Amino acid sequence: MRTGSEPSTARSPLRMRLWLSIWGMIWAVFGLVAFVAVGRVGWATACGVLLVVTVTDLCVVVRHMRQGPHYQPGRDVPPYEPGRGGPRR
């Protein structure tokens, strides 16, 4: 629902989140492998948790992208006028 204060060309930053998730996933895998090779279990666990978070975010972003665009009212739809706080009659 439009409030009238948002830009008419506003877009969701899903592609940016997709690439940031991929970038984070690459670094988390690199860190996980490196810390396992060195024998640092605590840091390897932290990188493993970060890997799970980035893969989860990647799945959510891909799901949202596959859903496609949602309904957005056009320019002919007037902005939503918020209520004044009084009871409806």
Q: How big a fraction of the residues is strand?
A: under 5%
Derived structural class: mainly alpha
The whole-angstrom Rg is 21 Å
Q: Main beta sheet, described?
A: none
Structure annotation, total helices: 2
Number of DSSP strand runs: 0
Q: What coarse outline follows from CA principal-axis ratios?
A: elongated
Low-confidence stretches: none
Order of helices and strands: HH
Considering DSSP H and I runs of 4 or more, what fraction of the residues is helical?
55-70%
User: N- to C-terminal separation?
Assistant: 22 Å
Rounded mean pLDDT is 82
Describe the protein in words:
This protein is mainly alpha-helical and 89 residues long. The protein has a domain at 14-67. It is 58% helix and 0% strand. It contains two helices and no strands. Helix 1 runs antiparallel to helix 2. The longest helix is centred in the middle third of the chain and has 27 residues, at 41-67. It is elongated and about 65 Å long. The protein starts with 13 loop residues before the first helix and ends in a 22-residue tail after the last helix. InterPro entries: DUF6343 (IPR045924). This is DUF6343 family protein.
